[in-house]
Structure formats: C-alpha cells, structure tokens
Amino acid sequence: MVRVRYAPSPTGEIHIGNARTALFNYLFARHNKGTFILRLDDTDEKRSTKEAIDSMIRDITWLGLDWDEGYLKGGDFGPYRQKERLDIYNHYIDILLQNGFAYELYYTDEEVDSIREEYEKTLKTFSYRKLKENETEERRKSFKEKGLTPAIVFKVEENKEIVVHDLVRGDVVFNSNEFKDFVIRRSNGLPVYNYATVIDDALMKITHVIRAEEHLSNTPKQILIFEALNFSLPTFAHISLILAPDRTKLSKRHGATSLGQFREMGILPEAMFNFLALLGWSPKDNREFFTKEELIELFDLSNVNKAPAIFDFEKLKWMNHKYILDKDLKSLCSETLPYLKDAYNVLDCSERTLLILDAVRGNMNFTKDVVPLSKPFFERTLNSISETDLKALQDPHALKALKYVLNNLDSVEFTQDDIEKFLNSLKDVLQISGKKIYHPLRISLFYSRNGPELWKIFLILGKDEIKERLKEAISLISKSIQEE
Length: 484
Ligand code: GLU
Fold this sequence. Notes:
Elements: E1 3-6, H1 16-31, E2 35-38, H2 50-63, E3 69-70, H3 86-98, E4 102-105, H4 109-121, H5 128-133, H6 137-145, E5 151-154, E6 161-166, E7 170-175, E8 182-185, H7 193-203, E9 208-212, H8 219-228, E10 235-239, E11 242-243, H9 259-265, H10 269-277, H11 292-298, E12 309-310, H12 313-326, H13 329-344, H14 351-360, H15 370-378, H16 387-394, H17 396-408, H18 416-430, H19 434-446, H20 454-483
The structure holds glutamic acid.
C-alpha cells in the first residue's frame, strides 16, 4: 500500500516548487490508490504561524489536492504536527543514546556557533566529535546546575559509503566523511529536520519520499538514522529544481513565485494543476492538456525528468486562456463573480452576466481580466475614447450610419439572427463601406474598435441603452463639427 506525504514547513506562502512537490505526491498516491498524507514540519515556533498554516491549507485546497490523512483530517499515525510529537522524538533519542548511536554534548547552540567561528578564523576544521572529546566533567556539572539541556549529536561512522537508491536520479553515492557527526536535537530541546523527518516517515509508514532535489544531500544522513533505529527505508525520489526560462532561480521578476500569487492574479486551479504536472514530468507524448483524472491515470515517477524544469510563465498564461475558453460558462461565472461584484456590483450569474462573460472570454488570459474587458458593458465612457477613435466618429459617413441605426433599431427583433441580418444590411442600405459603419458603431457603443462581436454587444446592451449611447455619440459628433 503506497503511503506518501507532503510535509511543508509552513513559514510563508507556498512556493511553486513546493506546490509541485505536493502535486507529484498527490498524483502518485492517487495513481497507486494509496494514501496522501499532510504533515506539518512546524518546529520553527517563530515562523510557523497560524496565518502561514492557514494560507498553505487554502492554497493546496484551491489547487485541488485533497489529502486523506494528516493535519485537520487525523488518522492512525498522528499527531501530524511535529510540534506535537516532541515526546515521540525524545523517546527515540533515548534509544539512540542507549545504543551508542548518539551522544550528549554539553554546549549550547550559541557556544557551538562561536567556537565554530573561531575555528573558521584559524582555518581549523570544526567537529562535534573533537568538542565532545575535550568536554570536561566540570562543564557538564555546571551545565546541569544551570538547568540547561545538552544537545544530542548523531555519531557517524567514518568513511562509510551510503548509497541513495533514487527513483529519479538512480543510485547516488555519498561518503560519510562529507558530513561527519551532526546534531539531531538542539540544546533548546527541539529536533532538527533530518532527525524528525526520519522518525515521522518511519512511524507513519511512508513508502515513498518524493521531495525536492535540495534534500538529496540530506538523505544519506537520514538513511543512517533509519538504519540505527532498525527502521525500514522508504523509496526516495528527488525531483529537480524549477528554473526560470533564463535558467536562473525563479524569482518575482519572472512573474510570480507562490501559489497564492497565481491564484490572486486569476489563474484557474485546473490550469495550474495541469501546468504544474508537466513541470518536470511528461507522459511521453506531445499532449499539453490533461484533466486531473487523466493525469492520475498516467502519472509515473519513472517519467520524471532529472534535468531542471523550466517555468514558462507565458505558457501558463496560454494554458489558462485555453482553460477559460473551455470552461463551462456557469463555473467561469462563479470564478469571476467576486471581481465583477467588486468592480461593478454584479450580484449574480444572471443570463446577462453569462452573456457578458461569453462575449469577453476570448480575450481573457486571467480570470481577473474580466474587469477591464467588460467595463464598457457597465460604464459609459465615451468621453475617454482615443483621438483616432474620435476622428473615426467625425467622418461624415459615421453620423449618417449612427442616425440610421438609431432610427431603425425598433424594427429589429433582438435575437442573434435578426441583429446580424440588420447589421449586414447596413452596407447596402447606406451605400457606405463596412469599416465606416462598424467602426463608428463599435466606438459609440463599446468605446473601442476592438472587443466582442457587434451582435453580442447589441444583445447585451439592449435597445434602450443602445439608443442612449448612440444619441450621446451623435451629440458629441454634432458638437465637434460645430466647433470646427
Ligand atoms: N519541511 C521540509 C521542506 O519543506 C520537508 C522536506 C521533506 O519532504 O522531507 O522542505
């Protein structure tokens, strides 16, 4: 039975790399009909705030990563917050001490830091082992008298070869001399990541540890702890970094870096899901669009790329655009309603709101784009049209066309067919070129030459509003002609 976990350190917004890690774990669990667990690596008291945890939950829920077990859900292997597992960590520290795999070090973190600094200045190599060898009985006594707790250091056998069998990277060989003894519990009583993670992964019966490449170098240390405690090893899969198209670290200047920022800018969750799944994985064909179900069906760690994944913001934008076009209109409305409500006090997904969305979605890259694109349906802004548009209105033919439409509007039945027929007939009736009719009409009704098809603009505005706008345009034209 596959059991995987996403174990964020909730200290701020979820970085896109972590979101992708969570997503790969999710897909792997679902593909294998396994269990997806959410665990909080929240021992950093200061930074693991309630806000950080809440925003993490909000964003992975938005992305559609529902977990089966863990924080807020419970399960047989809890608690699922490291903060609440300190007794468990201490229990295994005792076992490591009893069996000679670790030792107590009677120095505070601050003391160690300053000793290390001294060593660095004199180019001597710092080692916990040496520090321990020179530790005096006197120091231990005074340490205890002050009520301080010793740090716990894991003892590393020298010159030991450790092989990480990684599903993505193959066998990666490390030598224990690269890291030597290391602290597993600080003098403040809190466990370090490498230790707590092992205890949790082992006790929670995690079968596959899928995480970011940056943890590959931590893995040999973790393997030594697994072995010292006779825990069986999970299978590891370290997924590559995400870089910007210029191959530098992804940063704000490339668009955005956190899941929350993408949500806020108006990316649809299903587009984000699809896009992230293809970041470092591909099903070995050239398809770009997949439903969540298809991704679950196809996902396989053996097709995860070793090379860094390139985060192409333009591609995400394009994908989002496609998802907006394909989305069921009512669901698109629920996504965009908050923006429409804010901007124009639109209260529900009425037929008119749906028509508006249908008219503008062809130009939407982000759901938020609905606001500027639909503005002319809600506000009259003839006064702020561009110089060239004003010129187009001042063409003598324009006035004729607008007046004709104004006078004949009542005879048109307001269906797509009839509006189109009416619009198409204008060229013949007026004997004017199409451009000189339709541009002034668009400018008068939609304040721009671009935008939705004219029949849609007609249908959405309705006869009364069209008449008002035409009158306004006609009066603007008449005034400017008089002024000349
Ligand atoms: N809290 C760690 C992180 O967010 C977890 C790493 C792991 O998955 O072991 O990087």
